[in-house]
Structures are given as structure tokens and as C-alpha cells.
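Hey all, sorry for the wall of text incoming. These are the two entities for the joint prediction.
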Amino acid sequence: MNKHRAVDFSKVNITGGFWADRMRINENVTLDSVRKRFEETGRFDAFKFDWKEGDPNRPHIFYDSDIAKWMESAAYVLRHKEDKELEEYIDNIVDLIEKNMGEDGYFNVCFTVLRPGERFTIRSDHELYCAGHLFEAAVAYYEATGKDKFLKLMCRYADYIEKVFVIDDSATFVTPGHPEIELALVKLYRCTGEKRYLELSRFFVDQRGNNEKDKDKECHQPAGKYQQDHLPLREQKTAEGHSVRACYMYSGMADIAYECGDETLFDTARELFRNITERRMYITGGVGSTHCGEAFTIDYDLPNETAYAETCAAISLAMFARRMSLLEVDSRYADAAELVMYNGFLSGVSLDGKSFFYENPLSIDLFRRKVNKEANKNEHLPITQRLEVFDCSCCPPNVTRFIESIGDYVYSTSDDTVYVQQFMKSTSKIEVGGKEIELIQETDYPVNGAVKISVKNSKDIKIAVRVPGWCKKYEMNAVNAKECCCENGYVVFECGENAQIDIEFDMEPTVVTANPLVRENAGRAAVMRGPVVYCAEGVDNKEVFALSLSHNLNAEVKDSELFKIPTLSVDGFSTSSDSCKANKLYSNEYQEPAKTKIQLIPYFGFANRGESDMQVWMNLK
Amino acid sequence: MNKHRAVDFSKVNITGGFWADRMRINENVTLDSVRKRFEETGRFDAFKFDWKEGDPNRPHIFYDSDIAKWMESAAYVLRHKEDKELEEYIDNIVDLIEKNMGEDGYFNVCFTVLRPGERFTIRSDHELYCAGHLFEAAVAYYEATGKDKFLKLMCRYADYIEKVFVIDDSATFVTPGHPEIELALVKLYRCTGEKRYLELSRFFVDQRGNNEKDKDKECHQPAGKYQQDHLPLREQKTAEGHSVRACYMYSGMADIAYECGDETLFDTARELFRNITERRMYITGGVGSTHCGEAFTIDYDLPNETAYAETCAAISLAMFARRMSLLEVDSRYADAAELVMYNGFLSGVSLDGKSFFYENPLSIDLFRRKVNKEANKNEHLPITQRLEVFDCSCCPPNVTRFIESIGDYVYSTSDDTVYVQQFMKSTSKIEVGGKEIELIQETDYPVNGAVKISVKNSKDIKIAVRVPGWCKKYEMNAVNAKECCCENGYVVFECGENAQIDIEFDMEPTVVTANPLVRENAGRAAVMRGPVVYCAEGVDNKEVFALSLSHNLNAEVKDSELFKIPTLSVDGFSTSSDSCKANKLYSNEYQEPAKTKIQLIPYFGFANRGESDMQVWMNLK
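and here's what came out:
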């Protein structure tokens, strides 16, 4: 373990470029849109605790978490932008929480209004998950506004949970069915300094898969895999079960490893991270390949059309990756986070910021859906157009909080070094080597690969620049700084005063192949340019499924106002049905496939121009 | 319509080669094996009509048809081979039928023993289907032995059905849920000369999809498609619903068109045949691409891994094709029958003749089965090894009767011409042009493409030799005969005395591509040699799913004692996982796939050497 310090997004002012644009949409459109959908569906009203049988919008066990994630997102906006109206809106919710919290500190809509007798008896019903999200929201709101009412309420709730689960041991279960509270308690500890919250988190981590009391409280998958319960956490070697639960759990583990210097937890988290990224992750950073249990399956099982790859799961992998990057110097963590950011997470929200995918498939075959319908096959296939709200609407407010805190991913520090993890146009003030330095990134990344890093007050500190895993060729030229070494994927510079590093990452589009053990992609390839995965859509290409890529892409890169990241036109082949003799189903007259240009768009932008066939992986000639 | 006469298998003595071998196994192994399995499962005992609640092997609605198809098969054996024991076995069953037939002529195990009150009230419960198979068996047994007891019993049953369905109109439905009786009644008519049976068959054909009484008796699929009920038969343009029901129905239609000279029925049957063979048929001749309703789906929906392609459905397509070949001169009918014979039907039975596939997939991915199991996906996937008997065991006795009557497919005649439809080592005596000629085929087809046809007493008759659709190059040299014309896929010779035609069909293995609208096969190819489709199995090839074919096959053809048809070794490429950097899930370092030899076996022989991955369609480089 080689601990780094996190640099949180409040230190990183994103001043332009791709993410500034996405944050603008997030703040101006998405946050409000999600709030309105949540209002319409009674989620906010539920906090009044006055729902009665017969009323519409029966409160659901997830409702607290939906509202909490929205509040957390709003708090992140308030961190850098004054908005009295928004603040008042949150204060009103906090007042409702205060009003409706139990004498003992308990707070949960569903289990107070609908099922008061069942408090902490149904392990799989998300009580502690909801609590965790409320804790995260409370910390975020305190850090944004300095107002501590919400935080104090949540401390009371955490105290009550400690009493029930540790002191009295009076719940029917020991660890939550849906992890989340573990990482949230660490946040609460870091914010308040109260060690008991760290200890409570550690208790949940230690007890998981270890306690007889939980054994008969399993659901869905055998042997507890569904909720990461099949083994004591420290003995788990492969990522199993519900993928969001898994990565929230692993994030909590990484937090405990960090705070407690727990080497075995760190080793386990490392092994799990490798299992995911080397065996169970889509090229987009999506994880959880089946809708059955929204779960990880087995190594190399990564079907494209039925990919589940939940938006929340991609986010949770980025969260896990970021925590791991604070535990050892290894650029693979930031590589994974970057893959998620520009692909498997970002596809979860429409370009206009209004609608969402829960599932993020790597192929859409409208024909297959037609067959499914007409032949009554009842096959589970992902939807083809984004929706504004879901019954289980965990993803939308997860998107809003992730985008708003994207600055979290840019830097980390060791005693004398700033690690540049991600490239975004930004200015940052960071404590390192006992002083505050100012870092300015000038870049249009990932529109192109040029990044200029200027550092004020840089004397005697080091700047370690990550070389992305996708990058085959780069140049770095330093002024007032000297390259001194390479360290696990980072080029390290010793700086003098006012150091400047000019970087050029070669962003030539390339074909990417998968390990042939991924059977669906054997003989196929995808196209990436920089960290961005591309796809072919029917709206741009005739007969998407008749296309083959040439391994010499000969790509033309075109600016795109719509996607903000270039589209590509690449060399390929088409065995279009035009070339087929009329009505011939099979032919033994071999025909050379016709050369064609394949139009590719960034994967995250698919399904923004109507319903369309789509493919990421294409045959490779 | 240009009617031909059928030449039935009793006229065609198969004297050696591939089919003689399969018939030997059928007679020596399969027939007995199916009988034993049917005995063990109480199917024969059911004919004693003494089953009581609590006994094992509760009679099923299909049991009569299972026994009937077995009896029909056994009768076909008796046609050319004396076997007193076998004859006695059948006579005993006939005695049971006589004993247990109702006073009124009704015979059905299930509806007499278990559900006497429900006679002819449940349209989908196979009563008339069972009757049809019994009629076929009775005709076959009469023709084999001259004994008419069984035939007379079945005439009584047919008379009773006419009374119930036509004269009294007393059943709750008008046409059967599972077609079959239509074609069987035509057989009964041809055998007895009793026109009422033809009229009864025509009644069922005319009423189908036309009668209000049937409207609310539909099952499974909406609008009656499942049982070819959605429209009056003459208005149907596409093959719909349960594929065996469909092709039995179309066979019955073709029979009625033939016997009644019904041009609109002929046109409809022709259009349906084209829809199947040009849009909805696997390269193997398999049909019915989904297990949901064992049905046809929509044009070009031909998934490989989940192909249903029931063995019975392939047989029923051959039956339909043979009937169509008697209605017009077009080699495509015999092409389809040949495809079925050597591929999608033949895969239904093991090489040793003991076990059967119900479903005949074109790909077996053991990994997908592992995922299905471990991730609790509950996806329907075909079994990977043949079984000796099924609960619904329609296929095994359909296999035995089809093989035993394969000679039906070899010839047809017009007034002065013998059409050579299939190529099999055989001697035949055929009436044509007012005299009997003798035709001798000397050939190892399809081991190679050489066929020598000698005709005795051939003066003034014509021989029309089919040029198979798969054949790109051939030579025909005639002695005492002269090529006079080509007619819809046949080369026609005017013969003198003792004509002889030496044929050499070029059997160079070729890649075959599918219409790109078959999305699963876009960019892929299969290999055929002559009428035989090939596949790659894991037992011969490392990582079957990492293989790509070269379009220059450069094939080495090797004799095979096991398959009796050569295996192939062809040029291809492999993106084997060996070539992958350890633990690399994705790579942007393009690697030329390694050249390799791909070992191919005849498709019908797959899964005869243990459980294995298998692919027919492979990527094409």
C-alpha cells in the first residue's frame, strides 16, 4: 500500500471543454428534470410521511435513496454556485427529515409509513442502503453550505444504527443486503472526525459473509453471491453478484483499507479490481453483464446485445477505481475510471440531459426485437430509447452526482508529488509538499490529445503525468521541469519554479480486439480514439450488421457539434443485401465484400437521433 | 400444374452406398431400440386400454401416434424383408386395436381410457393427428403384407370421423389443431379407392381458417398462426406457426391439389414452399427457428445457437417438397429434399442409430451453457447430446419411417420421362411410356460426384437428370442417348435401347454465404461439399469460436470410416487465446490472425464423439 491523498472536486475548477459543457447541462437541465420527475412520482411528497392506503405513488423502499442522491447532486452544485432557491428546496426536505425522524434517530419513509413493525428485519429491503445515501447527502450539504442540521440528524441516525447493530445486536440481520452504508460511514467519519462511524463501517465489512445470522437472509442467487455474501470479504477473489452492490462494497472495503491500513483488505480489493477489469468488464467500462440479478456472471461472459451494464454499475466501478488509485500508484485505476467516464457511464444520459438508460447494451438489433415480439419469445432485451424516469430510478440521480463531482478524478497527491490522473481544462489549487500550488490544464481533451500543464509555485515538487493505457505514442516537453522517471504508468517530472509540461497524446483511431475467450467478439473489433469507444448506428449506415471493419482504418476525423467529440469515417466492407441475388437465401458464388466507408459516432451518443440499429463490435477483415 | 407420378420406395432397391448403410442400421438397431424405449415407457402397454390411476406411464395424447409411426416403419421394413417375429408383433398390436376400438369405430387410447367424456372436444389435443398416423400405418402394413384387418379397422375409424365431422357436425371443432389427417386420408383413398376419404381430407383443407366454430379454439399464438388457422389456407402467403403442423398441412394441401387438380391450392403451396426455402430455412434444411411454439418466426430469422429445427420439421419439409415435385418440374423441390436428407434430418439420429436429437442447432457453445447455468439465466438452449427417448418422442419413429422409405425420393415419372431426383446406388423397375424399364444407378454419391445410370428397355423414353442446386460444374456423357434439352434444372436425354449416362458432378468444397438479411450470418460462411453441410467441432479443433474461414478453402478431402462421407481439412485463421497477452482483456495492438487448418466433419455427424463446441457458420476472412 502506498497511500495518496484525494483531491476533491471543490479544489478543481473545470473551466471549459467537454466536462464544463456536460456540467452546464447537468446543472441547467438534468438536475431540474430529475427533480420534476421525482415530484411527479411522489418521491418528494413521500418525505411528508402522510401517505395513506388509496393514495397514488405508494412509497417504495428505494425512495429515500433517490431523494438523497438528488440532494447530494444539488449540494455539489451549491459547492461552486450560489442558488438560494435550490438551497431552500433542500432545507425544506431537511426540515421534513427532522420532523419525521424517530425519537430514537431512525429515519426511513417506507418502514415508518408502511411497514413500521418490520424495521431492520428484512435484510434485502434497502434500509441501510437508504441510510448510506442520506449520510452522503448530509456530508455533501454540510460541505457545500456549512449548515450542519442535516449532518447532525444523520449522525443521530448513524448512532442509532450503531446501537441496533453493534451495541444491542437487536436486528434480525447483521450486514445490509445492499452495500452502500460502508463507504457512506467513512465519509461521515472523515467529515465529523467521529471514529465510531469508521468502526461501524469496519464492523459491516468484517461481518460480511462471516456471520451465521445472515446465512438464511440471502436472496436471488445461491450461496449469497447476489449480495457478496458467499464468503468472508477478505476471501473473495472474483467479482460476484449484483454489480452495483459489488462495487459499492469494494469501494467501502478500499476506504477501510485506506483508513485502517488494512493490507489484506487492500490485497483483496486489488484482486477483485483485476478480476473485473481483466475478465468481466465491457470495453465501455460497463460491468454486470446479465439482467438476471443485474449481476456479474463468469469470466469472459460479455454478450453485446443483452449487456446489462447498468449506468449505476459503471459509476460504481469508477468510484472503486478512484479509491484504489489512492492505495497504490498504478495508472490502470485511472484508465478504468476514464473508460467509464467517456463511455459506459456517459451513454446513460442523453445529450440533452433529459433522459436515461438504465441498461447500456453494446449492440441494438431492431430485427431481433421484432422477432422477439412477433414470435412471443419474451426474451429480455434492453430498451432502445432513453426514458426520463424509471420505477427503479437509481441511475438518474447517480448520473447527476457523478457529473457534478467529476473533478474528484483529476488529481491525487503523495507527500511531494501531484499525480495528474485525468485531463480536463481546469485550474486547481492543491496542497502538496507543505504548500499550495496552482495547476492549470489547458486542453480540449479528448477532442484532441494536446494537454498543457502549467504549475505555479512548483519548485521542489513533482508532477506525475498518467500515460493512458490506450495511448501508443506520446510526446512530453517540459519547461522548468525535468523528466526523472516512469512509475507504473506515470511519467514523473521534477519541477523548478513555474514548471510547464506540453503533452501530445497520439489519438490516431485504432481497432481494438477482445481476448478471444470473449466468444461474442472473436474475429471482431471495435474502434477507439483516445479513451472514446465508437459505434456504428443505422441512422448513419445502411445495414449496420452487414459491415466489417478493415484493420487499416484510414480514419477521417470530423468535428461534431452534436457530440462535442469527433465522429469518424473509416474504411470497411459491406456485404449488403443489395449485392444478393433476389430471393437467394444461400449462395456458393463467393462475392468479395464491397469496400465502403463506415460512419462511427462516440458510443455514449447512441440512440440520440431516434431508434436505430447499433454495433460497437464489428467483424474484422 | 404438370402432374407427375410418384415412384414409391418399393420399386427402388437400394443396393449399396450411404443409404444402404443407414437402412441397415435403421433395421438392425434403430427400429428395435425405439421399440424397447417405447415398451419401457408404457407406450405399447397403453394399447391394452387397462391403465389405472396410480399405474406408472400415464398414457399421453401422443402415444397412439408414436406407436403408429413405429408400426409404419416396421411395415416399410416388411415390404422388402421377411420377418415373422416383427409381423407377429404388429399383428398383436392390431389385435389390441380391434379389441379396444369402440362400437362406433372410434379409437384413441387417452380419450377412451382417461378422458372418455372429452372425445372431439379439445381441438389442440391431437385426436385427429393420432388417427392420421394410424391410417398411414394401416396403409403401410396392408401394402407390405396384404393383410387388411388393420386397414379395415382404420376405414371404420375414418367413416366414424366423417360421420362426426361432416354428416352430424357434432364435434366442438371443425378442423384438427395438429394437421396430419389430411395427408393420411389421401393415402387411405389411394389405397382403398374410397372417394369419401379424399372428400373428407378436402373438407378439412377447405374448412381450415374458414370456420367460425374453430375461432375460439386457438392455442399458443395469436390469430391462429400456431396451427395455420389465421387465414383460409388458400390465402396464406407465408409459412407460420408450429413448423411440423405447417409442413404436414402443406403436404396435405399438395395432395389435394394433386388429386383434385386444384390450381389455387397448388399456387398457394408453391408460394408457401418458396417462402420457406427462400426466407425461413436453415442451410441444413432445418425449419422452425424458435422453441417458442416450435415455430416459424419471420423472414430471415435464423439464429444458430437457439435453432429449434426439429427433426420432425425437417422430415415434414422433405415430405412437402416431394409432393411439390409431383406437381411441377422444378429441381428446387428435390434440392430441398436432398438438403434435408443429408443434413437437418440426418443430424437427428446418432451414427450408431440409437439416440436422437429433437432440436438440431447450428452452433453449440458450451461456454454459453455454463453461463446459463451459473448465472441462473434460464435461457432455452438445445441439448448437446442425443437421447434415446423423449417424453414427447415424435422424432425417433419419424426417423425410422423416413429412412426406410428414402427410396420414395429417387424418381418420378411423366408420360414418357423418368425424372432422376436423387442419386443412390440402386436398381429400380419403373412403369413409364406404357412399359416397364429397369434403371440401375451405380454411384458412391455423395462420397463423390460420379453417377452412372444404365437403363434397360429404354427405347423411346426420356431420362431427365436433376442438376443439384449446389453444383457449379458437371459433365454428362451419354451412350445410346442424346441430350435434347434442359428443363427447370433437369438435363433431359432421349434414349435408344440400353441407354447409359455417365455423370460427374464436381464436388469441390465451397464456402456458402447467407443473404445478409440473416443477421446472425452476416460476414460469415459455411462450407458445403455436394449436398453435405460441414461443421467444425471442438473435438477436432482448438477454440472453435476463434476460427475464421478463408474464402480459398484449399480443401483436403479425407475418407472417413466413421461418417461414411469424407471429412475436410480447409484453410482458415485462428485468433486463439494463446496469441493473447496474458490477462489482457482488450488490445489495440492489431495482430494478424494465425493461419491454421480447420478440420470439418459432415454436420449430421456432430455430437457423436462426446460433448463439444460446434459451429456451422464461421467468420469469413
